Amino acid sequence: MATKIVSRDEWLTARKELLAKEKEVTRARDALSAERRKLPMVEINKCYVFESPTGKASLLDLFDKHRQLIVYHFMFDPAEDQGCSSCSFFADGIGPLSHLRSRDTNFAVIFHAPIGKIEAFKARMGWDFPCYSSFGSDFNHDFHVTQDEAVAPVEYNYKDKATLEKENGGYSLKGEQHGMSVFFRDQGRVYHTYSTYARGTEHLLLTYSLLDLTPLGRQDGDSKIGGFDYHDKYDE
C-alpha cells in the first residue's frame, strides 16, 4: 500500500509517469492480441457429445448460429456436489451474452460433472449462461483440463508431467483444472484456435481489474487466482 503523502503537484508528476507506462502496456496488449488472432487453426475431427438440460449436443451445436465459440473449462469433479470456488468467482463475472453474440461469438461453460449436478449448482449460484457436461467424453482429457494418467498423459498449460513436478511440486498433476478455449466454425467444420490456462484467464476477471486500481490491491497475498468464497457464503 502507498503510504507517502505528497502535494497535488507531486502526485500529478508521479501519475503522469505511471500513465506513460500504462500506455506502453496497452500498446503491447494490442500487439499481442493481433498476434493471437494470427495463430494457425487445427481442425477438430473428433465427435464430442455433451449433455445439456435439453439433451445431447455436439461441439458444433454449441456455436448456435455464430461463427465463433468461447468455452470456459470449469473445474467440477464428478464425485463432488459443487464446483470450484475460484471458477465460480470467474463465472460470477459473466454478464449478458448479447454483446458478445452481436460480434458473432457464442459462449459456453463446460463442466466434467454430470448434468444433474451442474444444474443444481447453477440454480444455487443463480447463473443463466449455457452450461454443458463433458462427462463420459474425451473432451476434458483432450484439452488437458482433467488429469488422469490412466486416460491420457499428464499435460497442463503446455507443460508435461516432469516439468510440472519440477516447477510446482505436483500441483495440476491430478483431477480437474481450469482454462479457456476458442473455436471457429466454417461451413460445418470446427477449428480450435486458442487455449489458455492457469493465470491466462486472470485478465478477464473484473473484480481483480477493479482491485488492481486500489491502494490495497487484491489482498490475497500471492499471485494465484483464488482466495474468494462462493458468493452465497459472504455475510455482507
Description:
By secondary structure, the chain is of the alpha+beta class. Helices cover 30% and strands 22% of the residues. The chain is built from seven helices and twelve strands. The protein has helices at residues 8-37, 85-91, 98-101, 115-125, 139-142, 161-168, 206-211; strands at 42-43, 49-52, 55-58, 68-74, 105-111, 131-133, 146-147, 155-156, 159-160, 175-176, 179-186, 189-197. The strands form four sheets. A six-stranded mixed beta sheet has the order 1-12-11-4-5-6. It is globular.
In short:
By secondary structure, the chain is α+β, with helices and mostly antiparallel strands. It has helices at residues 8-37, 85-91, 98-101, 115-125, 139-142, 161-168, 206-211, and strands at 42-43, 49-52, 55-58, 68-74, 105-111, 131-133, 146-147, 155-156, 159-160, 175-176, 179-186, 189-197.
Which characteristics define this entry?
7 helices; alpha+beta; 12 strands; two-stranded antiparallel ribbon; 236 residues; 6-stranded mixed β-sheet; globular
Topology:
Blueprint lengths: L7 H30 L4 E2 L5 E4 L2 E4 L9 E7 L10 H7 L6 H4 L3 E7 L3 H11 L5 E3 L5 H4 L3 E2 L7 E2 L2 E2 H8 L6 E2 L2 E8 L2 E9 L8 H6 L25
Parallel strand pairs: 4-5, 5-6
Antiparallel strand pairs: 1-12, 2-3, 4-11, 7-10, 8-9, 11-12
Helix-residue proportion: 25-40%
Mean pLDDT: 93
From N to C, what is the helix and strand string? HEEEEHHEHEHEEEHEEEH
Structural category: alpha+beta
The oligomerization state is: single chain
What characteristic shape results from the CA principal axes?
globular
Got a strand count?
A: 12
Distance between the termini: 24 Å
Low-confidence spans: pLDDT under 50, at least 5 residues? none
Going across the major beta sheet, what is the strand order? 1-12-11-4-5-6
Q: What percentage of amino acids are in beta strands? A: 15-25%
Largest sheet report: 6 strands, mixed
How many DSSP H or I helices? Answer: 7
Rg from C-alpha positions?
Answer: 20 Å
